[in-house]
Amino acid sequence: MARLVSNLEVWSIVKAAAPSVLSERALLLDVGYRPLSIVSVRRAILLLISEKAEMLHAGEDSVRSERIKLNAPSVIRLRYQVAAPYRRRAPLHRKAVFARDGSLCQYCGRRAECIDHVHPRSKGGQHEWENVVACCRSCNAAKGDTLPENSKFKLKSAPYAPEPIAVAAALRRGIPTEWDAYIVNPLQLSA
Please, what's the b/e burial string for 69-86 (b: 16 or more CB within 10 A of its CB; e: otherwise)? Predict the structure, then answer.
């Protein structure tokens, strides 16, 4: 792939691939092997062909044109240092909270069905990662809007804000096993 590839050939590769292959995702790493984002296979192929990235792990599917056949990338690494985008916090929503807490009630350990604000919003608590946990209906109803210090309910683990890339990977259907080496604290979605 050392030779320069024409724009027409790049377009024929991207256009010829099955839509399902191009809609798959690839993990994009920076020069230091830290996850930057999750990109489409189409974007990953364009980075590979333009020699801005190198393939670390290939998927099972392949993408071909008249002259080039490439394995669909699963993990790619940029060849040069880029300014990392501002790492905002992961978006807070129900599925992400359940993924972080393993779908278990953080008060009693049973299967979680709803989310609870540890410090109730009615008493000044914020809707943020450090104040929201997964819980079962009975614990949520029994706790009500009592403050943690006045409640008999104790948390099994302290709530925390997970890495945005871990949340994105958990919400994706089926995380490839080759991503595990690069995502530090992977979250698991349970059915």
Answer: ebebbbbbbbeeeeeeee
